[in-house]
Design a protein that fits this description.
568 residues, alpha+beta, three-stranded antiparallel sheet, 19 strands, disordered N terminus
């Protein structure tokens, strides 16, 4: 029957209370060979005794390579995880003697056994184990392979000329190892299952199609690579679950678009500290406008949180040095997914200047908003038709009762003249009986629109014409407002150009952002786009209400930060 355990067969020996695993099926051809080989090593890792059986006339190099690589993979990747499993299960056995014992069971027909040094011409059917063990160690040295790091390594050879295989020597050796706890520790079956489950969870990452070693590190290490240099993380698989960051001992390569070059304060390094510093428009001790003026005169500064300002770009009239000569040490760091590199391209002088001007304009606008609104209402009432309700008497929408005393715009229905909100006056129709141009749709409320077009026609009587309300001043005022709106819209283009020119290097460009990075809401006329000063992503106002300093980005004052960065 087909095996449902990837070629692993299990039996229980009641005489020795031992679980026996046959993994020969795992060495066959399969579409997922790499996964099978990794699973084989997991089975070997939880075993007490490993028996490598071979019928080759001579012991091949592949066997020695397998034993050497598997034992070192166990010590490098599995030993720590098994010790952790023992500690979590609060087992009574020691975690320091968990490496399995290994037996090489060699069966031949016509060739001599390993270590058969007899000279009388008689070939023994069983070779002396000590002689075979020493011959194994010698062969590892001859092949220049590292000695395997099992608890113990044994050779058991038998020669079968005809008939059944003689397993007596193997049985004796297995019984001896099962009762010997000086170099290995017997483990309960329940622990074995728990340990195998833990190893499957820990080492379950994807594997490449082809590998050039028997047990390469790719079987067990994190598959994450640095996009700057394509180096692989050297930590074990799923180490992120333990809040353990990625690591690679290989040197990284500088990529300008990733900005993976960082500055370290040289004075702090000399005092056994690591302090990352960045170029900034001005020091944290200067005011906004004073800092910008200082930036124009002296250039950027590099400030350490412990040592203060350690470098000025134009401190002298001539002969200014590069910061890497005296002030900082430059390091090229790996860029791991999810990590934020605090690079050297975070200068924000232009953006701070633009925000300073914007803040000043907002303050002036907020202070003058109420008087300007009253003045606008007064001017509108002067040019309004006589049948319109004065702005001062409109406090709420006539249809939905929405409050119109705040910043909400109020509109007049051209048919009845009452005040409404924008949502309740979205319809358009011709109102020539009020004196508005014929065949020209104008704003009306929902109620007047539902009544339909008024069919009354103007009388030829001159007296009746003179009784029509004068709408000429209002039409002139609307024409002026439309022209002003067009001019204001045209001014948005240079404003957008200035914003993009002043954008810090780590900010995502406006034209690449379509929705909020926190809530996913789409940006538009009613939902303006803002940038988080920490991550540089686009965010709406609702998801960026909090303010805090972002010193590693050059913002020494409280600035806008998205909710995602605040939670981190």
């Amino acid at each position: 029957p087909e095996s449902c355990t990837m070629g692993v067969w299990v039996a229980y020996d009641s005489n020795t209370s031992t679980v026996v695993l046959d993994t020969e099926g795992m060495m066959g051809i399969s579409s997922n060979v790499n996964q099978r080989v990794r699973m084989l090593l997991k089975v070997l890792a939880i075993s007490d005794i490993i028996i490598y059986k071979t019928n080759a006339g001579r012991l091949h190099t592949d066997m020695f390579t397998f034993l050497s690589d598997s034992s070192h993979a166990f010590q490098k990747h599995f030993s720590k995880e098994l010790k952790n499993a023992v500690e979590r299960s609060k087992a009574s056995f020691s975690a320091n003697t968990l490496a399995p014992s290994a037996i090489v069971f060699h069966e031949t027909q016509r060739t001599d056994l390993l270590g058969d040094g007899t000279s009388d011409g008689k070939r023994p059917r069983q070779v002396h184990r000590k002689t075979g063990n020493q011959s194994l160690i010698t062969r590892f040295a001859e092949l220049k392979l590292p000695q395997p790091e099992f608890s113990s390594l044994h050779y058991c050879g038998t020669r079968t000329d005809k008939g059944d295989t003689d397993f007596s020597g193997l049985k004796e050796l297995v019984r001896t190892l099962l009762v010997d706890s000086s170099v290995r520790t017997a483990r309960p079956v329940l622990y074995m299952m728990s340990a195998l489950k833990h190893l499957n969870t820990k080492f379950d990452g994807a594997l490449p199609d082809s590998l050039d070693k028997m047990f390469p590190d790719e079987y067990f290490t994190c598959p994450t690579t640095c996009p700057a240099c394509n180096c692989r993380c050297e930590k074990t698989m799923n180490h992120e679950l333990d809040d353990d960051s990625h690591f690679s001992s290989a040197r990284c390569v500088y990529q300008a678009k990733m900005d993976n070059k960082v500055y370290l304060c040289r004075h702090c390094i000399d005092n056994s500290r690591e302090e990352i510093v960045i170029p900034k428009a001005s020091s944290s001790q200067t005011s906004l406008w004073g800092g910008l003026l200082s930036n124009v005169m002296y250039g950027y500064v590099i400030e350490c949180s412990r040592c203060g300002v350690i470098f000025r770009q134009r401190e002298h009239w001539y002969g200014n040095k590069d910061p890497s000569e005296d002030a900082v040490r430059v390091e090229i760091r790996h860029v791991w997914p999810g990590d934020r590199i605090v690079g050297t391209g975070t200068q924000n002088a232009a953006r701070r200047l633009l925000e300073g001007l914007s803040n000043t304009a907002e303050v002036v606008s907020s202070v003058s908003a109420t008087p300007a609104r009253y003045m606008g209402d007064w001017m509108s009432d002067i040019i309004a038709p006589s049948y319109w309700t004065p702005n001062a008497k409109i406090t709420a929408c006539k249809t939905c009762d929405k409050d119109l005393t705040s910043d909400e715009s109020r509109h007049h229905c051209r048919a009845c003249g009452k005040g409404f909100c924008n949502d309740c006056t979205c319809n358009r129709m011709s109102v020539e009986w009020r004196g508005w141009p014929a065949n020209t749709p104008v704003r009306v409320c929902d109620a007047c629109f539902q009544k339909g077009h008024v069919t009354e026609t103007l009388s030829e009587n001159t007296a009746e014409r003179e009784q029509l309300p004068s709408i000429t001043p209002r039409r002139v005022g609307e024409a002026v407002a439309v022209a002003a709106t067009a001019v204001a819209g045209a001014m948005e283009y240079p404003k957008a150009f200035l914003k993009d020119a002043a954008r810090p290097a780590y900010w995502t460009a406006d034209d690449e952002i379509s929705q909020c990075c926190v809530c996913g809401a789409l940006f538009g006329d009613k939902l303006p786009l803002h940038h988080c000063r920490s991550c540089g992503e686009g965010v709406c106002d609702k998801c960026s209400q909090r303010r805090r300093k972002v010193a590693d980005r050059g913002w020494d004052m409280a600035v806008r930060v998205c909710d995602a960065c605040c939670s981190d």
